[in-house]
Amino acid sequence: MTEELPEIPGFRYARPLGKNVHLYRGADGEVAVKLLVDPPRAAEMRTVLALGHPGIVLVHRAGRTRAGLPYLVMKHYSNGDVAALAPLPFERVLDIGVQIADALHAAHWVGVVHRDVKPANVLLDEHGNACLTDFGVLGRDRLPWTAPEVITTGLYSARADVFSLGATLWHLLVGHSPFVLPRGNNSHSALEQRILHGRPPVTGRAPRSLEVLLHQAMAADPAARPVSAEAFALRLREIYHETAPAGSTVDAVVRPADPSPRRKRRWPVYASAAAVAAGVLGTSGVLWLKDDNSLPQQRQDAGPQSALDAGSSAKATVTATRVNRETLRFTWTYPSPLAGDTFAWRTNDDLKTGTVQTPSVELYAPGTLCVQVRVVRADGSNASDQSWSPEGCGF
Asked: Of residues 81, 95, 102, 116, which has the active-site annotation?
């Protein structure tokens, strides 16, 4: 089995975490490596990675094993998923519900539907924050939380995600899916019939307002559900304020919904991660934000930055495009270009360096290659090594 696992520089294999997920340890911490037996859709995964939303799992990089199986290197969420923790108090379920609804809203905002919202895909970080994983990866055990129209038509939508989130929160209150009968017939056909023709009972563990909202979210008619994940999150917040003791606060619940990114990423997240995962290896490989050299990171809220202190925002952004089987073309853009600008470049293996007059260079690269660029101003104002761009990688 270990022959099929990837080799991650600076990390060693530790143990399995679950089906197709393995723990690796290094000097800087731990990462989880997920083997993509059922790869997600490339474009959707690329879009989700670009969001950098705090409610979406952090992916550090992507690659392939020697046997050709795609994988993702992700932050290790040491508290695991929420499935094993149920039943939970309704206050905690409200907290988790808001965070996941916000993450879904961010994804829906850019046109991405999750397709497999369920307790096992909700992970908890070291601070207890909930994060959604496995966008577009259709698990074989998704049925107990699946919307009826998906069963009958196979079509997924934002409101189908809302249904699945409602079923997930019901599960967290009770300890099992609303369509599962403890000690009853839970065959595939029996579950389908309950989803298509039944209605889940009240949980008996939540305020009436939350019971009503969950039943609305799991309405058979999509039009009867909350119109969006944003509307679902807003109603969850209202229920929190209606039921919370005077003077109490929960940051995740009272924080306003916002589809824009709020996380500072400290390791490159490759836009091409989705392409690698789906086998689309000849397209662009764009690298977003890199602040230091450690894989593991903790969640941080990124406040607004001025043009003077933006730091890496003044650096070049490098894009890689494969020209042919042996050549990669690296191009870059940067703020405020001036006449006379030249460009120093270097590869990640430190074997190739050079200087060019135009923002482009073609290099021999039959495999993966990453390049950093430094804009050289005539007055030498950015001669420090800190002015090197994040890496741009081609595959």
From this structure: 116
Residue entry with tokens 């994940």: 229
Q: What number is the average pLDDT over the span 282-309?
A: 34
pLDDT tens-digit series, residues 337-362: 888 888 888 886 556 777 888 899 99
- 269-270 and 285-288 strand pairing: antiparallel
Q: Which fold has domain 2-76?
A: Phosphorylase Kinase; domain 1 (3.30.200)
pLDDT value of position 177: 96
Distance CA 173, CA 165 (A): 12
Distance between start and end Cα atoms, the chain: 26
What gap in Å lies between CA 237 and CA 231, rounded to an integer?
Answer: 10
Residue 251: φ, ψ to 5°:
-55, -45
Rounded Cα gap, residues 378 and 108, in angstroms: 45
Here the tokens at position 156 are 């997924």
Share of the chain above pLDDT 70, in %: 76
**What sign results for the dihedral spanned by CA atoms 294, 372, 393, 287?**
positive
87 prior amide bond cis, ω within 30 = yes
Q: What are the extents of the domains in the chain?
A: 2-76, 83-254, 312-394
Whether 116 is catalytic is yes
Angle at CA of residue 108, ends 17 and 70, nearest 5°? 35
Residue in 257, 252, 173 with CA at minimum distance from that of residue 218: 173
CATH number for the domain running over 312-394: 2.60.40.10
Tell me, yes or no, if the pTM score tops 0.70. no
Q: Does domain 83-254 have CATH number 1.10.510.10?
A: yes
Residue 309, pLDDT score:
32
- Work out whether the CA dihedral 161, 165, 167, 168 comes out positive or negative: positive
Question: β-pairing, 269-270 with 342-347?
Answer: unpaired
E strands, the chain, are: 11-18, 21-26, 29-35, 59-64, 70-75, 122-124, 130-132, 269-270, 285-288, 317-324, 327-333, 342-347, 353-356, 360-364, 369-376, 392-394
Q: Which of 132-141, 186-195, 316-325 has the highest mean pLDDT?
A: 186-195
